[in-house]
Amino acid sequence: MRCFLKRTVILSACSLCLLFVFKNLHEGNEDFNTNEEEKRLGREIALNQLYSIRNVHNFLELWNASSVMNVSYQYLAGIPPLKKKYLTIGLSSVKRQRGNYLQETLKSIFKQSTNEELKDMVVVVHLADFDVEWNSRTAQEISSKFAHYIISGHLLIIHAPEKNYPPLTGLKRNFNDPPNRVTFRSKQNIDYAFLLNFCASLSDYYIMIEDDVYCAKSFFTAIKKAVASREGSYWVTLEFSKLGYIGKLYHSSELPRLAQFLFLFYQEMPCDWLLTHFRSLLTQKEVIRFRPSLFQHNGYYSSFQGTANKLKDDDFEGDSVDFPDNPPADIHTSITVFEQYAPHKAYSNVDGYFWGKSPHVNNHFTVMFIKPVNISHINIKTGTQERPNDILHSGKVEIGTKMTNKMCADYISIGDLARGQFDQSGIEHLIKSPAECIRILVTNDQKEWVIIKSINVWTKKENIA
Fold it and tell me: What three-state secondary structure class fits 407?
């Protein structure tokens, strides 16, 4: 009787967890931009998982996972650092039919990092191909060109042998993918699961990139600033690129759980989809993405059959990135808001932007700071690459320095938007008093709707009490 009750409780608990996966799989386009066919397939996936006894027990094990999986690794070059680092950069690589970008990616990581930054990071490359000769040859080439970084403990190359892998043929053909595509993406999930598992104890944080990316200068310092800005708030994933699974940052303490999650659902869907569901399961509903992006997809040929892959991140900036401070503020606007494109999305790290219907003269978009701040730099972008006409065609930027009845007064104009953009530094020399508000004021009616993509604010000093 007790066994029956225990099994019932287990099934009930796991049903709730898997129903949560199901819920996220079929939520509207606001979260995942899936079409109706994908939603239907998603429902089938979740229900199949729900009634799988194997996955019921695996899911309970996953939910309580705090230790790494028992996987044997081969060290192809370097050894794990003796001292725990701040950041591990993990990437997995396999033999490509066309193009090879791994060494260029490693070159970019090290070139764009200072010696001081390198002291607190380690790069782990998982050569995940089943061709042992290719792995050995590639490791030797990397060891020859990056010997200094291997000797210094900044670079480590590993391989998880094929014997560790689950079956990769005869898998479920979700989304009507051909068998070779299913095998490729399923193996890729396991490649990353083993990489995450290995890296769990190396550092405080872990960031996932691909083997064909280019890095922004001093990306490490930018990541540290972004993490510090989220201190005291809950997060599962911080994103530093909008593409796939490039630039996704995790607490290393979550890596065992994430590794087992990828292992459990390895044949269900691509890795980037699984990462999205993992974030949602751990109750971070909205994407937290920092702009500009720190990593750019650099490869032209995909690792799957050498097909062309021209994806680019239009938010990437290669120069040294200084993420904005964006002090805490309330956001108000008199422009009619369209659907879920809320005003706060223009000012926060939440993915998305503000989208409003045709603005009229004297409409405003106002950032009201919780505490007065000394502003040094403001950058405002309107419109998007997909909707270049939805810019603010006529408007000016003002700073309010006096708060009366929870409204700013004494506005001072600091310039006009030009072709929907505004960038002004040295503001501390123009405005001597601490700022209470920033206001975008519409100066002419326009027929087009308006997108405010981002409002970024840098401060000179700490907030004034």
Answer: strand
